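Issue 218. Parser rejects a valid record. Input:
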Amino acid sequence: MDEFTPPPPDLAASPPPLPPAAISGSPTDFLKGVVGKRVIVRLTSGVDYRGVLSCLDGYMNIALEQTEEHVNGVVTNRYGDAFIRGNNVLYISADEAL
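Output the parser choked on:
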């Protein structure tokens, strides 16, 4: 190899390929797909809420049913319904296969 040819990529160091669901689709498609399913909502405070996503809006305001509050991985409260203001949401993750 000359000094201008980059070395071949190290295949052992490259990350595994992403599953098809992670490659295609937009965040909006994901959110539409998880309505009615179990999700994990992480707040900016680090607290997790797990429950069934009832609905959400463009501001990321969220309504959950059958909600559990998790602090440091431990269930601290259970709520029938919970409403979370969008500016507190760090992320939403599916808690079951899509």
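Fixed in the parser; the record now loads. The longest strand covers residues 74-84.
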